[in-house]
Amino acid sequence: MLGKTGVLIVNLGTPDTPNVPDVKKYLREFLMDGRVIDIPYANRWLLINLIIAPFRSPKSAKVYKELWTEKGSPLKIYGEANEKQLQEALGNDYVVKLAMRYQNPSIEKGLKELQLMGLSKIIVVPFFPQYASASTGSVYEEVMRIIGQWQIIPQLKFVNYFYNHPKFIKAFADNGRKYLDKGNYDYVVFSYHGLPERQMTKADCTGNTCKLGSCCDTIHAFNQHCYRASCYETTRLLVKELGLKEGTYTTSFQSRLGKEPWIQPYTDHVVKELAQKGVKRVLAYSPAFVADCLETTIEVAEEYREMFEEHGGEHWQLVESLNDSAPWIDLLTDLVKEQEH
Ligand SMILES: C=CC1=C(C)c2cc3[nH]c(cc4nc(cc5[nH]c(cc1n2)c(C)c5CCC(=O)O)C(CCC(=O)O)=C4C)c(C)c3C=C
Ligand SMILES: [Fe+2]
Ligand SMILES: [Fe+2]
Question: Which positions bind Fe(2+) (predicted)?
Fold first, then answer.
């Protein structure tokens, strides 16, 4: 095994089953993460255990049951496929392990397996195109917590983001182009997972803070880890690749939780406004996710479609994510190899 490199691919996580106790367990672990609900521990504990877990779990379980396939949760099925595909693409000099930040297979299990192989280098690839403290940052914190206890700390590399990688942009653009070429769409919505505004305005490592305004209109040395700026840049790059005209697309943020303000505009508001303005045919991108999951298959493809049609829209189509496609594996291979320099 000496000389091999370990590759830990990490996605967010999903419940073990769509039943209420497993969904509750998943939500508890996820939302008790101080990078996800960033309030003092005691307040977070009360909020999660007395309000969110008991009341949200039955509702979420219902939706997970709708999402579930014979083989399980799509997020995990695609992750398992990616583990095999990437192993094949990288060959024998690498050992690829899949991990989930929450629930199973855990980061602890994946790292332990790599540790037992005596690898001298580990590359961590979180499956989040845009950096956020609540996603990528949380994966790193967990990796460092575990590896920090080891006697021998291997050489460690992290892929912080890849929203601007030309192969990421091309893969998503190609997925959408096949609809645009045939479908006579009059509008494209780029909907990203949202974040609480409070998290955006915390100072980054350079001391800069996002002002939730025009500071996100360009990407530069001081805002490369700004989630909002990275989302807007993802849209700009996709728009350029697709050749969309000004006034025919917009960026918005979905999946908010709780009563505090999250980054805006909210996708549900945008969906209603577009339908009410007379827009009839919309192509919807969700480029914060590399695998179709609850947030794309149910929220974007079903809930927003129903909302759009209820308010006068005629056709709403989700662009599928990268899932187990060859261009995604090609991009993952590049992301790993780029860490070897
Ligand atoms: C794009 C990366 C993600 C960020 C950033 C993120 C932040 C974030 N999420 C919540 C709350 C929930 N998210 C849920 C599902 C979910 N979130 C992501 C990704 C990011 N979340 C994915 C890929 C998924 C789907 C998982 C699946 O099993 O398919 C859920 C659970 C679903 C539900 O009950 O509605 C919650 C809750 C917060 C609060 C947050 C940042 C503060
Ligand atoms: Fe989320
Ligand atoms: Fe900003």
Answer: 193, 295
